Amino acid sequence: MNEAAERDNRSIFGFWVYLMTDCVLFASLFATFAVLRNSIFGGPSGSQLFNMHYVLAETLALLTSSFTCGLMFLAVRARDKKRVLMWLAVTFLLGLTFLSLELSEFARLVHDGDSWRRSGFLSGFFTLVGTHGLHISVGLLWMSVMAAQTLRRGLTNNNVRKLTMLSLFWHFLDIIWIFIFTIVYLLGAARL
Amino acid sequence: MSLRSDLLGRLNWQAFHHPWVTNVGVASMTAGAIAVVAALFYFKRWKWLWREWLTSTDPKKIGVMYIVTALVMLLRGGADAVMLRAQQATSVGVHHGFLSSSTFQQVFSAHGTIMIFFVAMGLMFGLINLVVPLQLGTRDVAFPFLNATSFWLYFAGGMLVNLSLAVGNFSAAGWLAYPPLSELAYSPGVGVDYWIWGLQIAGVGSLLSGINFSVTILRMRAAGMSLMKLPMFCWSVLGAMSLVIFAFPILTATLAMLALDRSLGMHFFTASGGGNMMMYVNLIWAWGHPEVYILILPAFGVFSEIVPTFSGKPLFGYKSMVWAIWAIVLLSFSVWLHHFFTMGAGADVNAFFGIMTMVIAIPTGVKIFNWLFTMYRGRVRFATPMLWFLGFVFLFTVGGVAGVLMAVPPADFQLHNSLFLVAHFHTMIVSGVLFGYLAGLTYWFPKIFGFKLNERIGRYAFWCWAIGFSLAFIPLYVLGLMGATRRLDHYNANLGWQPLFIVAGIGVCFIALGVACQVLQLVVSIKNRHANRDKTGDPWNGRTLEWATSSPPPHFNFARLPDGSQRDAWWAAKKAKTAVAYGPYESITLPKNTPLPLFIAAAAFAGGFGLIWHMYWLAAAGLLALVTCLIVRTSAEDNDYRIPAAELKKLENAEQAG
Question: Which domain, by its residues, includes A153?
Answer without folding.
Answer: 3-32+49-189
